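Contributing new complexes? Match this layout with adenosine-5'-triphosphate.
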Amino acid sequence: MPGEALLTIRGITRRYGQVEALAPIDLDVARGERIALIGPNGAGKTTLLSILAGVGQASDGAVVWAAGSPRPVGWVPQQPALYPRLTVRENLRLFAGLEGAADADATADALIARADLGEFATRRASALSTGTMQRLNLAIALAGQPALLLLDEPTGTLSPDQRTRLWSWLDDLMSDGEMALIFSTQFMDEATRHADRMVALGGGDEFMRLARDDA
Ligand code: ATP
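Output block (do not edit by hand):
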Protein backbone atom coordinates (compact mmCIF):
# COMPACT_ATOMS: atom_id res chain seq x y z
CA MET A 1 0.00 0.00 0.00
CA PRO A 2 1.18 3.54 -0.70
CA GLY A 3 2.98 5.09 2.25
CA GLU A 4 4.43 8.46 3.17
CA ALA A 5 4.70 11.37 0.74
CA LEU A 6 7.33 11.20 -1.99
CA LEU A 7 6.65 14.34 -3.96
CA THR A 8 4.16 17.13 -4.32
CA ILE A 9 3.24 18.75 -7.62
CA ARG A 10 1.67 22.19 -7.34
CA GLY A 11 0.29 24.15 -10.26
CA ILE A 12 2.58 22.69 -12.90
CA THR A 13 1.72 24.00 -16.37
CA ARG A 14 3.36 24.08 -19.77
CA ARG A 15 2.62 26.53 -22.56
CA TYR A 16 4.08 26.73 -26.04
CA GLY A 17 3.11 30.21 -27.25
CA GLN A 18 -0.70 30.16 -27.33
CA VAL A 19 -0.84 26.37 -26.91
CA GLU A 20 -1.49 25.10 -23.40
CA ALA A 21 0.22 21.71 -23.53
CA LEU A 22 -0.50 21.03 -19.85
CA ALA A 23 -3.27 22.68 -17.84
CA PRO A 24 -2.37 23.44 -14.20
CA ILE A 25 -2.14 20.25 -12.20
CA ASP A 26 -1.77 19.45 -8.48
CA LEU A 27 -0.76 15.95 -7.49
CA ASP A 28 0.63 14.27 -4.38
CA VAL A 29 2.57 11.07 -4.93
CA ALA A 30 3.26 8.65 -2.10
CA ARG A 31 6.18 6.23 -1.84
CA GLY A 32 5.36 2.99 -3.61
CA GLU A 33 2.21 4.42 -5.16
CA ARG A 34 1.21 3.51 -8.72
CA ILE A 35 -0.59 6.22 -10.68
CA ALA A 36 -2.05 5.95 -14.19
CA LEU A 37 -2.27 9.11 -16.30
CA ILE A 38 -5.32 8.94 -18.50
CA GLY A 39 -6.48 11.31 -21.20
CA PRO A 40 -7.01 11.70 -24.93
CA ASN A 41 -4.16 12.36 -27.37
CA GLY A 42 -2.68 15.77 -26.70
CA ALA A 43 -3.92 15.90 -23.08
CA GLY A 44 -0.41 16.60 -21.82
CA LYS A 45 0.57 13.18 -20.46
CA THR A 46 4.00 13.16 -22.13
CA THR A 47 4.50 16.79 -21.17
CA LEU A 48 3.88 16.09 -17.47
CA LEU A 49 6.05 12.96 -17.45
CA SER A 50 8.95 14.70 -19.16
CA ILE A 51 8.78 17.59 -16.65
CA LEU A 52 8.91 15.09 -13.78
CA ALA A 53 11.80 13.32 -15.51
CA GLY A 54 13.69 16.62 -15.63
CA VAL A 55 13.97 16.63 -19.42
CA GLY A 56 11.15 19.15 -19.91
CA GLN A 57 10.55 22.49 -18.23
CA ALA A 58 7.35 23.71 -16.63
CA SER A 59 6.08 27.20 -17.47
CA ASP A 60 4.74 27.57 -13.92
CA GLY A 61 4.44 25.64 -10.71
CA ALA A 62 6.73 23.50 -8.63
CA VAL A 63 7.68 19.89 -7.96
CA VAL A 64 8.77 19.45 -4.35
CA TRP A 65 10.43 16.23 -3.20
CA ALA A 66 9.68 15.09 0.33
CA ALA A 67 13.33 14.89 1.30
CA GLY A 68 13.78 18.47 0.15
CA SER A 69 16.06 17.61 -2.74
CA PRO A 70 15.42 15.83 -6.04
CA ARG A 71 15.51 12.05 -5.88
CA PRO A 72 16.60 9.78 -8.73
CA VAL A 73 13.94 9.28 -11.35
CA GLY A 74 13.82 6.46 -13.91
CA TRP A 75 12.39 7.61 -17.23
CA VAL A 76 11.18 5.42 -20.09
CA PRO A 77 10.08 7.62 -23.01
CA GLN A 78 7.92 6.30 -25.85
CA GLN A 79 10.94 6.08 -28.15
CA PRO A 80 13.62 3.63 -26.91
CA ALA A 81 16.54 5.55 -25.42
CA LEU A 82 19.31 3.02 -25.89
CA TYR A 83 22.19 2.20 -28.21
CA PRO A 84 20.93 -0.31 -30.82
CA ARG A 85 24.42 -1.44 -31.86
CA LEU A 86 25.49 -2.27 -28.32
CA THR A 87 24.54 -5.53 -26.64
CA VAL A 88 22.11 -5.71 -23.76
CA ARG A 89 24.97 -5.99 -21.25
CA GLU A 90 26.96 -3.16 -22.89
CA ASN A 91 23.92 -0.86 -22.78
CA LEU A 92 23.32 -1.62 -19.12
CA ARG A 93 27.01 -1.20 -18.24
CA LEU A 94 27.08 2.14 -20.05
CA PHE A 95 23.98 3.51 -18.30
CA ALA A 96 25.09 2.13 -14.92
CA GLY A 97 28.35 4.05 -15.40
CA LEU A 98 26.49 7.21 -16.37
CA GLU A 99 24.40 6.88 -13.20
CA GLY A 100 27.63 6.75 -11.20
CA ALA A 101 27.58 3.08 -10.21
CA ALA A 102 30.75 2.16 -8.31
CA ASP A 103 30.92 -1.17 -10.15
CA ALA A 104 29.14 -0.83 -13.52
CA ASP A 105 29.71 -4.52 -14.39
CA ALA A 106 28.09 -5.75 -11.20
CA THR A 107 25.20 -3.30 -11.60
CA ALA A 108 24.67 -4.45 -15.21
CA ASP A 109 24.58 -8.08 -14.06
CA ALA A 110 22.09 -7.24 -11.30
CA LEU A 111 19.87 -5.42 -13.80
CA ILE A 112 20.06 -8.34 -16.25
CA ALA A 113 18.86 -10.65 -13.49
CA ARG A 114 16.18 -8.23 -12.34
CA ALA A 115 14.80 -7.78 -15.85
CA ASP A 116 15.14 -11.46 -16.72
CA LEU A 117 17.40 -10.62 -19.66
CA GLY A 118 20.02 -13.34 -19.06
CA GLU A 119 19.48 -15.19 -22.34
CA PHE A 120 19.75 -11.91 -24.28
CA ALA A 121 22.78 -10.43 -22.50
CA THR A 122 25.16 -10.73 -25.45
CA ARG A 123 22.59 -9.85 -28.11
CA ARG A 124 22.58 -6.45 -29.79
CA ALA A 125 19.67 -4.29 -28.70
CA SER A 126 18.64 -3.89 -32.36
CA ALA A 127 18.06 -7.66 -32.59
CA LEU A 128 15.61 -7.84 -29.68
CA SER A 129 11.88 -8.33 -30.03
CA THR A 130 9.73 -5.31 -29.20
CA GLY A 131 8.74 -6.73 -25.82
CA THR A 132 12.30 -7.62 -24.81
CA MET A 133 13.56 -4.24 -25.97
CA GLN A 134 10.97 -2.60 -23.76
CA ARG A 135 12.23 -4.67 -20.82
CA LEU A 136 15.76 -3.46 -21.60
CA ASN A 137 14.45 0.13 -21.63
CA LEU A 138 12.96 -0.46 -18.22
CA ALA A 139 16.16 -2.05 -16.92
CA ILE A 140 18.08 1.03 -18.11
CA ALA A 141 15.63 3.24 -16.22
CA LEU A 142 16.34 1.22 -13.08
CA ALA A 143 20.10 1.76 -13.33
CA GLY A 144 20.05 4.75 -10.98
CA GLN A 145 17.90 2.96 -8.35
CA PRO A 146 15.09 5.46 -8.76
CA ALA A 147 12.50 6.32 -6.14
CA LEU A 148 10.07 7.04 -8.97
CA LEU A 149 9.66 5.26 -12.28
CA LEU A 150 8.03 7.20 -15.14
CA LEU A 151 6.70 5.25 -18.12
CA ASP A 152 5.19 6.93 -21.18
CA GLU A 153 2.70 4.51 -22.76
CA PRO A 154 4.94 1.53 -21.93
CA THR A 155 2.80 -0.97 -23.83
CA GLY A 156 1.77 1.26 -26.74
CA THR A 157 3.76 -0.74 -29.29
CA LEU A 158 3.27 -4.20 -27.77
CA SER A 159 0.99 -7.07 -28.80
CA PRO A 160 -1.64 -8.23 -26.26
CA ASP A 161 0.63 -11.13 -25.22
CA GLN A 162 3.63 -8.85 -24.80
CA ARG A 163 1.50 -6.41 -22.80
CA THR A 164 0.46 -9.17 -20.41
CA ARG A 165 4.05 -10.36 -19.96
CA LEU A 166 5.40 -6.86 -19.41
CA TRP A 167 2.77 -6.07 -16.77
CA SER A 168 3.36 -9.34 -14.99
CA TRP A 169 7.04 -8.40 -14.73
CA LEU A 170 6.27 -4.80 -13.74
CA ASP A 171 3.76 -5.86 -11.06
CA ASP A 172 6.47 -8.11 -9.62
CA LEU A 173 8.99 -5.29 -9.73
CA MET A 174 6.62 -2.97 -7.86
CA SER A 175 5.49 -5.53 -5.30
CA ASP A 176 7.96 -4.57 -2.56
CA GLY A 177 6.47 -1.04 -2.49
CA GLU A 178 9.93 0.58 -2.69
CA MET A 179 9.38 2.53 -5.90
CA ALA A 180 6.54 4.77 -6.99
CA LEU A 181 5.27 4.49 -10.57
CA ILE A 182 3.55 6.99 -12.84
CA PHE A 183 2.58 5.69 -16.26
CA SER A 184 0.49 7.03 -19.10
CA THR A 185 -1.80 4.74 -21.01
CA GLN A 186 -4.61 4.70 -23.54
CA PHE A 187 -5.83 1.37 -22.14
CA MET A 188 -8.40 1.65 -19.36
CA ASP A 189 -7.90 -1.98 -18.35
CA GLU A 190 -4.21 -1.29 -17.65
CA ALA A 191 -5.09 1.71 -15.57
CA THR A 192 -7.67 -0.11 -13.47
CA ARG A 193 -5.61 -3.27 -13.06
CA HIS A 194 -2.13 -1.92 -12.47
CA ALA A 195 -2.56 1.46 -10.77
CA ASP A 196 -3.69 2.42 -7.26
CA ARG A 197 -5.44 5.42 -8.78
CA MET A 198 -5.98 7.26 -12.03
CA VAL A 199 -5.35 10.90 -12.81
CA ALA A 200 -7.28 12.39 -15.72
CA LEU A 201 -5.66 15.12 -17.82
CA GLY A 202 -7.11 17.53 -20.38
CA GLY A 203 -10.71 16.34 -20.79
CA GLY A 204 -9.62 13.03 -19.32
CA ASP A 205 -12.73 12.72 -17.15
CA GLU A 206 -14.90 12.52 -20.24
CA PHE A 207 -12.33 10.19 -21.85
CA MET A 208 -12.51 7.96 -18.80
CA ARG A 209 -16.32 7.85 -18.92
CA LEU A 210 -16.34 6.96 -22.64
CA ALA A 211 -13.64 4.32 -22.19
CA ARG A 212 -15.59 2.76 -19.29
CA ASP A 213 -18.76 2.73 -21.40
CA ASP A 214 -16.79 0.98 -24.18
CA ALA A 215 -15.27 -1.62 -21.85
P1 ATP B 1 -0.28 11.48 -26.81
O1 ATP B 1 -1.17 10.48 -26.15
O2 ATP B 1 -0.66 11.76 -28.23
O3 ATP B 1 1.18 11.19 -26.64
P2 ATP B 1 -0.12 13.46 -24.70
O4 ATP B 1 -1.28 13.44 -23.75
O5 ATP B 1 1.12 12.79 -24.27
O6 ATP B 1 -0.60 12.89 -26.09
P3 ATP B 1 1.55 15.77 -25.13
O7 ATP B 1 2.47 15.06 -26.07
O8 ATP B 1 2.04 16.05 -23.77
O9 ATP B 1 0.15 14.98 -25.02
O10 ATP B 1 1.10 17.12 -25.84
C1 ATP B 1 0.18 18.04 -25.24
C2 ATP B 1 -0.10 19.19 -26.20
O11 ATP B 1 1.05 20.02 -26.31
C3 ATP B 1 -0.45 18.75 -27.61
O12 ATP B 1 -1.47 19.61 -28.09
C4 ATP B 1 0.83 18.94 -28.37
O13 ATP B 1 0.57 19.19 -29.72
C5 ATP B 1 1.42 20.16 -27.66
N1 ATP B 1 2.90 20.16 -27.72
C6 ATP B 1 3.72 19.24 -27.19
N2 ATP B 1 5.01 19.57 -27.42
C7 ATP B 1 5.00 20.73 -28.12
C8 ATP B 1 6.00 21.58 -28.67
N3 ATP B 1 7.31 21.30 -28.53
N4 ATP B 1 5.61 22.69 -29.31
C9 ATP B 1 4.30 23.01 -29.43
N5 ATP B 1 3.29 22.25 -28.95
C10 ATP B 1 3.63 21.13 -28.30
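Reviewers usually confirm one structural detail per submission. For this one: Residues 16, 19, 21, 39, 41-47 surround adenosine-5'-triphosphate (CB under 6 Å).
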